[in-house]
Amino acid sequence: MVRVRKARQEDLAAVARLLFESAPDMYMRFSGGRERALATLERAFGEAGNVASGEVAWVVEVDGCPAAAMTAFPVSEAATRSRAFLGLALRGTPAWRWPRTLRLYWAGGHANPKPREDSLYVDALATDQEFRRRGAARALLDEAERNAREHGL
């Protein structure tokens, strides 16, 4: 059975791992390695106002296990949330890595087309390999669409 719900504190490790899997190369370059990236995502989950905070995370459970995760928020919040995540990442990154992290942040902000302000932005979405092809990602996207409508986006 597939069930979508808001992420909870006890989902922290699973959500961090799944968000990492949504863009592992980017997170490793941004943070300086897998372990540092996972630690950053775990800190971000517990800190409101960033792109990976628990307040904007949803989980799909399959047979009671976290099988997929998504973070999504209004586009109007994207710049503020991105800056907050950058600050959080820099706090856990050696100062000598900051120039590379800042270049990556700047490039990421300019590489993507700008979505409309009245949209919901899905920042990350990933399904655990063991649970793929069971409708978890579709359920998360349906939840994003429902959430967007609920907020007039």
What's the order of the H and E elements?
Answer: EHHHEEHHEH
Q: Which sequence of strands runs across the widest sheet?
A: 1-2-3-4
Structural class: alpha+beta
Q: What integer value in Å does the Rg equal? A: 15 Å
pLDDT < 50 runs, ≥5 residues = none
By oligomeric state, this entry counts as single chain
- Fraction in helix: 40-55%
SS element count, helices: 6
Structure in a nutshell:
With 153 residues, the protein is α+β, with helices and mostly antiparallel strands. It has helices spanning 12-22, 24-31, 34-46, 78-91, 98-111, 136-150; strands at residues 2-6, 57-62, 65-74, 120-127. The protein has a four-stranded antiparallel β-sheet with strand order 1-2-3-4, with helices on both faces.
What features would you describe in this structure?
With 153 residues, this protein is α+β, with helices and mostly antiparallel strands. Helix content is 49%, strand content 19%. It has helices at residues 12-22, 24-31, 34-46, 78-91, 98-111, 136-150, and strands at residues 2-6, 57-62, 65-74, 120-127. Strands 1-2-3-4 form a four-stranded antiparallel sheet, sandwiched between helices. The longest helix is centred in the last third of the chain and has 15 residues, at 136-150. The mean pLDDT is 90.
For this entry, give a set of tags.
alpha+beta; 4-stranded antiparallel beta sheet; 4 strands; 19% strand
List the helices and strands and how they pair.
Blueprint: E1 2-6, H1 12-22, H2 24-31, H3 34-46, E2 57-62, E3 65-74, H4 78-91, H5 98-111, E4 120-127, H6 136-150
Antiparallel strand pairs: 1-2, 2-3, 3-4
Helix pairs in contact: 1-3, 2-3, 2-5
